[in-house]
Every structure is written in C-alpha cells, then in structure tokens.
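Why does residue order matter? Because the sequence determines the fold. Keep that principle in mind as you read this record.
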Amino acid sequence: QVQLQESGPGLVKPSQTLSLTCTVSGGSITTNYYYYGWIRQSPGKGLEWMGAIAYSGTTYYGPSLKSRTSILRDTSKNQFTLQLSSVTPEDTAVYYCHSKDRHYGMDYWGKGTLVTVSS
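Structure:
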C-alpha cells in the first residue's frame, strides 16, 4: 500500500517559488506503471491537476500552469517535489500529492497541505 506525505512551508510570499516535497512509502517511485504528481484545490474551486512524473522520469504538466511548474524526483530518498514559481495569492490552495498505478487503476492520495500566498 503506497502512502504519501506532503511537507513544506505553509506560507509563501508573492513572487516567490512554492516548493513542496512528497515522501513515498510502501513502494518505489521507479516501480513500473506508477505515476506521481500534484493536485491542488483552491478555496471554493474544484480539483486542479498540476502535473506528474512517471516511473521512467518523464514529466507531464497541466496546460494552465505548465510555464511555472516543475516536478522533480530524488530516487535515493524516494521523494518527489513540486516547484511553482512566481506565485500570487491565487495560488493559495490545499496541495495534494497523488499516485496512480496505471496497471491496476489504483489511486493514492496524501492528506494534503494548505499553502497560503500572502505578504
């Protein structure tokens, strides 16, 4: 059973880079057919898929945030990170790390972490 845990600052200033880490347990981030990514939910809005990194290391990004988003991984720590640059208060949201097993169709979620963008 894959378990995901987000970590990072809860407050970021406008124009800075938001950086979050997801630590994975119960499985390797290089296991075939697994994708690891980030989804966010802003206040009063629906879920927004931000992007993912595949078991192969290939990255995929959602069109609306692609220019500001980077997803990286550290295989030695079994972690992957989100970097969102030039944040504004509109980037205030609960950020979830997510995993998809494309072979069996299973989804795994972290508990989510609230990030507030404010000066």
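Residues 3 and 117 are 27 Å apart (CA to CA).
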